[in-house]
Write a structure and sequence with these properties.
Distance between the termini: 32 Å
Largest sheet: 18 strands, mixed
CATH architecture of the largest domain: 3-Layer(aba) Sandwich
Structural class: alpha/beta
Number of helices: 15
Number of domains: 3
Shape: globular
Length: 741
Amino acid sequence: MKSLHYSLFLLAVAYATSSLWAETIRPNILYLYVDDMGWGALGPNGQFERKAKGLPHLVTPTLDKLAAEGVNFSRSYGCTVCSPARSSQQTGFHQGHTFADRNDPDNAKKAIRADDITMGDVLFRAGYVTGYWGKWGYGGTPNKDAYPEILNVQTLPTSHGYQHVLAELHHVRAHTFFQPNLWKAPALPGSIGGLELVPNSITRYANNRGYPNTPALQNNPHYPDIAYCDDVYAFAALDFVRIQAQNYNATGQPFFGLFASQVPHAPFREVEQLPEWDRAYREFPWFDSLSDQAKQWAAMITRIDGHFGNILEALKDPNGDGDRSDSVLEKTLIVFQSDNGGPGDNSITEFKSNAYLSGQKGKIQEGGIRIPTLMRLPKAYSSSSKLKSGTSVDRVLDVTDLLPTFSELAGVDVPVGLDGVSIAPTLTGNGYQREREFVIHEAGNGQSIIRGDYKLIRAKSGLSLFNLSQDPSEAKDIASNHSAMVEEMNAILLKERVAEAKGFANTYHRWMGDDQADASVAANWSDYNYENAGLVYMSEVGGPQASWTATVDAGGDAVVASDLEFLSLEIKGANQVQEVFVEKGVTLTGRNEIQLSTNGVLYFDDATIASNRWLDIQTGALLSGSGTVAATLHNNGFVHNIVPGIVVKSDYISFPESILLIEFKEDKNSFFIVEGKAVISGGLKVRIADETSIVSGKKYTILKSKSLSGSFTNEKSEVETASGLKFRIGYTENTVTLTVL
């Protein structure tokens, strides 16, 4: 079988074509991330209405302008507390699969592993200059004195692609805004993990320039000797943006900066140590009637909004000379987001920071997990994107979606098997937007699954169901009226590992078997051990599990002789074709995805290939055989439909580089069957088992689908067999036909 597959692989390469889809720019990416700012604290989610009514409201001119020039994702989700939010943000895994599913103190020293691929890793490898400023949360001690220590190098930002760093490593140290020193990179030679402690000083980063949006910072005798941390983070980010924007104009090298502010997390009172801390609110008659905590909270947000304004000005005028012809604003994707919902403090009651949502930070209700999110798109996207400036969209967006989105925008492969799904096609208007069925969250008071309009909450008190489109405040439990839906959604939720003990996560494994070795045998796979400083945090040995992120890329061909389930499976070859054979009657499952990458071949013989999402065939890869694909099938490579044929239980999406080879017999129903929609592109080839049985002028159906769009790229809409027999390709609303010429 290997010789057949190798010849088919060579054929796929020979017929591969350049992409016919519009290329998108590789934008600069500026990610503004705040801590504990509730969904309703954003203008279009409630503050604009409060301002119009003369009620207490936030003063956020920068965010207001971003809302006017960008898109508000009104159904955007983070996590319930800080550590899981940052882990999911960086790795693209939800809390059932990432190591940090709680605010566990141990997360600080071990949450992001060397094997995890972060957005910093992806963009650095893609050639971006990368920066991170603010609350990181992992890798160091919680010491509140001047000299914290590094506990785990593999979980540091500098170990995950971030080159320019000014940060607090431990989230407890981030619970004060006047730390005497912070962690910085680049660092002095010999520094542990590429980070060194530096004094927390404004002048170190401000370069003595004026910053109109943040008052009374420089040369002010009343400013504290130890700086307010977010001021210094902001100045470091500002200098990075100025320098890298000029570098982008000179060299074309894009940059990625993530400013993860500590604002507006408690403690609140510390902001009062800053000169002019409440200046933006003195004109409002309602300000004096607010509680001290509400005043402080509002001032903190307005202060960080001013810093954001300065950074955006640097995009418009990188060298600060007043001439904006060198602006990179329209070449930059700007993302604003919070990590979780607003906490249960006075901001909820006096500013309605969670609007009408129930619950708060730490809770599984919408007020705990729904977050404010804005995106301002580069100008190059504006003509083709369906997202229009100044609008709100109700598309469900999860924090896990940002890593794959940034990957695709940067023009590099999305890491295999993530829970997040790229929305790059939605932002750019180019390509095919993949969808997922559900999103998952965990909290101290339960877990949830959101699927379409419905949200199921699993708590100690039982299961409850809400229709978020009709009842966004989760006031009416409708579980008793939808028992079948409740049972189905709960089953999915549990399979996503939300009930596991803290510290559970996906594990990484590689194929090590000899040629034709059994894929179910533990000895044919690498073990997984996560350890640091003599402590073993995780160990996964034995045969394949549903939590495995597995790769078959070296060693002999693998044989799947019994049902196997992975979280994800990637098959690829380095300098050789790497094959996996699925035997008759067997099911191979990759819950998040199965991906065939370059030189990867998957053969199945009257077997089932299954996924909750998709089987992804990339350029230079081959799927060959017959049986069932219980997933959406994305074909950017080569699919060979062998008699008696392939049945795709969901959609079939093909791309311009793809080839579909239909092998059929005149006297058998050997169709390529798609039970969902078929989006057709790329080339069509045909192989006939017995050409002597073909009747001249007869029309043969070779593909059936629920609905069909697009067409093959064959010249003159014709296809020819190896022996020279020609057919005319025809289309109906749900079939592809061949007529003998």
